[in-house]
Amino acid sequence: MALSGKTAVVTGAAMGIGQAITEKLLHNGAKVVLLDVNESAAKTLVENLSKQYGQDRTLFLSCNVESEEQLKAAFEKTVDTFGGIDILCNNAGILNENEWEKSVSINLLGVIRGTYVALQHMNKLSGGRGGVVVNTASMAGLGPLITCPVYTATKHGVVGFTRAMAGASAASGYGIRFNVICPSFVQTEFLSDPNSKMGQFSHLADVIEQMISKAGTLNVSDVAESVLEMVTDETKNGEALMIFSKGKHYVTFPSM
Ligand SMILES: NC(=O)C1=CN([C@@H]2O[C@H](COP(=O)(O)OP(=O)(O)OC[C@H]3O[C@@H](n4cnc5c(N)ncnc54)[C@H](O)[C@@H]3O)[C@@H](O)[C@H]2O)C=CC1
Ligand SMILES: CC/C=C\C[C@H](O)[C@H](O)/C=C/C=C/C=C\C=C\C(=O)C/C=C/CCC(=O)O
User: Fold this and answer.
1) What atom in ligand 1 is closest to the CA of residue 13?
2) Any coiled-coil ranges, and where (predicted)?
3) Predicted TM-score (pTM) above 0.95
4) In the chain, fewer beta carbons within 10 Å around the N or the C end?
């Protein structure tokens, strides 16, 4: 899929991995609508991106992925402004085992909400242009992160939802591909002060420190490059891409 003339929506776009995905898609020719709750960071970013790529290539919309109403309004505004949606990156996420219900609401339900609202605009069966959805899970979506059981559960959920949607879309003729990225530890704000985010499992913090020092960390640009691959490679549907400091590979799952 060539990105020139295409419109992407990225959630959690103001910082970190979402910012890197946004910049990668812009660099490759797409228009990008940035959704985030952090208005000040997003506005500063969009100002800079507009100078670099032009005023008509980006749009920031304040949107909390916990709210179906805000997502609906954001996607409608996107379609009104740019004429349709071709790419959705459900990326917003938090790590907070203390507020575990909020974690489920953002990390898993936010992906489902975003996808279902976007489908109304992207699905070829309801007049959309088709396209591709890339969800941000984590290596914790493939195996357990023992300090973060709920984070682990949400990311396993994102992997399962993505793969099932890929099959449903292919079998139904939606014209939309669904893929998921599973990065290891990435250098962003997300990794700052991890002990405070582990709730009742903070006594296990050493385990994570050892994992990080053994595994190393990724740059956001490595992750964004993988998202670009999953957006542009039209052979990829229902794929989960593991990204770690020494490389990346597509995950093989048991067949059903
Ligand atoms: N940093 C890491 O080590 C890894 C992160 N991930 C995942 O990558 C995604 C992005 O993480 P980072 O960029 O590292 O985090 P980050 O904390 O740097 O950025 C997250 C962004 O999402 C936004 N956000 C948070 N809640 C939101 C909501 N309810 N609605 C809309 N926007 C919201 C924040 O304002 C922020 O701009 C998350 O889903 C995270 O689980 C996956 C693997 C590794
Ligand atoms: C405090 C912990 C913080 C947050 C969670 C992270 O942000 C992230 O979402 C979770 C990452 C979990 C990583 C788990 C294991 C990583 C292992 C490696 O990177 C090393 C191994 C990979 C080899 C893969 C292979 O060779 O097949």
Assistant:
1) 37
2) none
3) yes
4) C
